[in-house]
Amino acid sequence: MSSSKPHILITEPIPERVISFLQEVGEVTVGEKGTYQSEENLIKDIPDYDALLCMLSTPVSENVLSQGKKLKVVANFAVGYDNIDVKAAQKYNIKVANTPDVLTEACGDYAMGLLLALSRKLKEAEQYLRDGKFNGWEPLGFLGMELRGRTLGIIGMGRIGQAFARRARAFGMKIIYHNRSRIAPEIEQELDATYFPNYKELTAKSDVLSLNCPLTKETYHLVDEALLKLMPEHALLINISRGAVIDEEALANALHRNSIAGTALDVFEEEPDVHPKLLSAPNTLLLPHIASATHKTREAIGMLAAKAITSVLKGRHDTEIPNLISP
Ligand code: GLV
Asked: What is the mean pLDDT of residues 64-69?
């Protein structure tokens, strides 16, 4: 690789405007779809690059970072950054950035959409029609859960949890939440949200349980067999956070025995693989990790990640880069 300009690797095709923006400061390589979904190609190629704009599907492990001899910054095209070994990045003096705020509203809309689709059985009903089974209006067909007056329990009341809560309030739902720390009193008041220090107690009280927390050591398989047993039989589970917050085998078993009423999952532990028992489970909406997938938001995500890269490459002070992660 030639030229004295910094070399920037973008691991997947992303909105063109973001690529052009980065081309103004460096020599940009855009990986073909899927090239960097395992460590192997990344370990081989990373020594050539000063900056990495990676996806949530890019495993930026210590093995990768230790080979980044010129690497100064890793910017994730996502708010969740469990794919990056942040401690190792610190050890090698590589800065890490993510993309908070810009995707909050798209994710709030999407969570509400999943809840509406799931609670009113839209997927099953549409399939019924396509299968030619709709032979006349049925008073007892596809009866679902009405949202007004129901309780939405949110685990992880950060920006996205709050955006979902705001929408659910407009549908007349009661909001309860669990979070590492209690949110500001004025936001609690605005959302009329009740804090539960104990997520198990929250689970037992929720008609709809929504996971909006990051994946950490503490939240790994937080929804396990024991927690699923605490959910009421009519309850629904929504996950737009990370797949590994749920023990998928346990969830699939609960769905197959009808011990909960349904689930909508946007994320999976072994993406792109989906647990086979989930594929055959009843009342299950399975989506390919698209909560932030709007034109506007994906461009904003890219620009925020790209600006962190250009700021680091231009030597700006950390305090001038609002989306840097400091562990
Ligand atoms: C998407 O899952 C993200 O973390 O931005």
From this structure: 98
